[in-house]
Amino acid sequence: MNLVNYGLKVFLLVLGCSFIFPLYWMASLSFKSKSEGYDNPFGLPKVWVFTNFSKALGKYHFFTYFKNSIIYTTGTILITLLIGSMLAYCLSRMEWKYSKTVLIYISLGLIIPIEVVIIPLFMMVKQLGIKDSYFGLLLPYIAFSLSSCTLMLYAFFRSLPKELEEAACIDGCNIYESYFRIIMPVVMPALATQCVLLFMRIWNEFPLAFIIAGRDRLRPITIGLLDFFVSIGVADWGLIGAAMLISSLPTIIVYMIGNEKIENALTAGAILK
After folding, report:
1. How many CB atoms lie under 10 A from the CB of residue 239?
2. Domains contained in the chain, CATH given
3. What angle do CA 153, 156, 162 make, to 5 degrees?
4. Residue 184 neighbours by CB under 8 Å, 6+ apart
5. Integer Cα distance of 268 and 187 in angstroms
6. pTM for this structure?
7. What is the pLDDT along the chain (273 residues), one digit of tens a residue?
8. 150: nearest Cα among 98, 108, 118
């Protein structure tokens, strides 16, 4: 039994290192010179080149793409959490005729991949006249994020005792006051978890942004990074590593901050049951 446990620990350690290795490779590559990127691709830099970052920022319109990604990510998170949490609350805490039908309809959004509807979605966005605006990407992002957000919060809301609303009603709260003042603080761990998951998903999203965001001034950081790779080719891996590291930092920081929130959400739902 001890040998099995030891083997399992070694396997998990190797598996964890395999997950960390791409981050290490990207970070080490960003500090290497043009020639060392070919001669020493996986080792630590022999000569640390810090100018790769300034050169990458000069050739790569980082701040424009960064601003666009912030707009898409923040807008999607705020609207999705507002609509998704209210819909989940209605489905889980209220009794109305077509609640089960709506729940099934929302669940269908999880099994429809983006690639299947990309062409009709592009035509719809173009016909609505919002292709050359931020709403051209914001609306699809929100639509594709609502299903997972609603179903996760639905399961969380169902674990809450009914006495919370009953006590709020006795104290004179209406349905909106009960939701925003009583229920929302209780489910804050789940909302924080959704914030982290939505941020990582929208920040790293590529297919929709590549198809719909046609103008350079509307493109997020993932499409800007592709344009940067195409412009410089594979001649300077140090610049490529620096650009990748700069683009990945927000996701890494958000996950490091929100990792504990995800664990709290998973345990909070079990405790509240």
Report:
1. 25
2. 59-272 (1.10.3720.10)
3. 120
4. 85, 191
5. 9
6. 0.85
7. 577 788 888 888 888 888 888 888 888 888 888 888 778 878 888 888 888 888 888 877 888 899 999 999 999 999 999 999 999 988 888 888 888 888 888 888 888 888 888 888 889 988 988 888 899 899 999 999 999 899 888 888 888 888 887 788 887 888 888 888 888 888 888 888 889 889 989 999 998 898 888 788 889 999 988 888 888 777 778 888 888 888 888 988 888 887 776 666 555 544 444
8. 108
Residue 189 identity (one-letter amino acid): P
Residues 6+ apart with CB under 8 A from 55: 239, 242
Other Cβ atoms within 10 Å of 40 Cβ, number: 15
Reading the block at residue 104, the tokens are: 């099934």
Token digits of residue 137: 């990407």
